Amino acid sequence: MVLTLYGNPQSTCTKRVATVFQEKQVPFKFVAIDFAKGEHKAPEFVAKQPFGQDDDGYIIYESRAIARYIEEKFADQGTPLIPKDLKAKGQFEQAASVEVSNFDVYASAAVYENLFKKFQGQTPDPDVFNALIKKLEAKLDVYDQILSKQKYLAGEEVTLADLAHLPYGSLLPAVGSNAIESRPNVARWFKSLQDRPSWQAVKDGITATA
Q1: Per-residue pLDDT tens over the stretch 101-118
Q2: d(C-alpha 20, C-alpha 166), whole Å
Q3: How crowded is the C-beta side of 110, counted as CA atoms within 13 Å?
Q4: N or C: which end of the chain has fewer CB within 10 A?
């Protein structure tokens, strides 16, 4: 049974999941949801959530949860994205927590403030944006230290924790921040992620592969 991904083709969270599908070489169907038309509020989609995945009747939502599900269901296929060694997995879990608590919380809010608000007809608040970027930059200073000693956040192999940064990290330049590019080790790491075929396949929009 082919898995089905529901979401907007340009959505950050949908791209996070689609990147993992690509890494794992898992064909998937895609049902596009038009946020502008309010389709994400329709009862049939609310039941699944806008970023839901349907696996033969099994429905799961939240992009990071879906990503883990895909990795574990297809563990022996494509790129391994969660280590099996206990200590390496501990490093992965640590990196995954860092992404949520020290990157996404600031990057996603900054992108919302300076980009998504405009799409909604609202006015961005420069003070809010600048405060978020200042906090993000402090966190990325620590990232730069970590990445001076290893290739990826959890060690020498790419994991879901690294890939999770791609959607919002790639939008930071568009909102006026060079927080990633101005830190050499972070810049090297992030470019290596953006250059992966999986991200190249979804960065401009998502289409089904099955």
Answers
A1: 999 999 999 999 999 999
A2: 11
A3: 27
A4: N
Longest dimension (CA), the chain: 49
130: tokens are 């600048």
Distance of CA 19 to the CA centre of its chain: 8
DSSP 178: -
- Cα 57 from Cα 126, distance rounded (Å): 45
- On whether the CB atoms of residues 103 and 186 are closer than 8 A, the answer is no
Q: Which residue has the tokens 């297809």?
A: 74
- The residues near 198 (Cβ < 8 Å, ≥ 6 apart) are 19, 20, 22, 23, 79, 163
Which DSSP helix (H) or strand (E) runs through 59?
strand 58-60
- The span from the CA of 104 to the CA of 66, in Å, is 17
List phi, psi (to 5°) of 30: -130, 125
pLDDT in tens, 172-208: 999 999 999 999 999 999 999 999 999 999 999 999 9
Separation between Cα atoms, residue 53 and residue 8, nearest integer Å? 13
Amino acid identity, residue 196? R
Q: What is the pLDDT of residue 44?
A: 56
DSSP string, 192-203: HHHTSHHHHHHT
Decide: 22 and 201 in contact? Cβ < 8 Å. Answer: yes
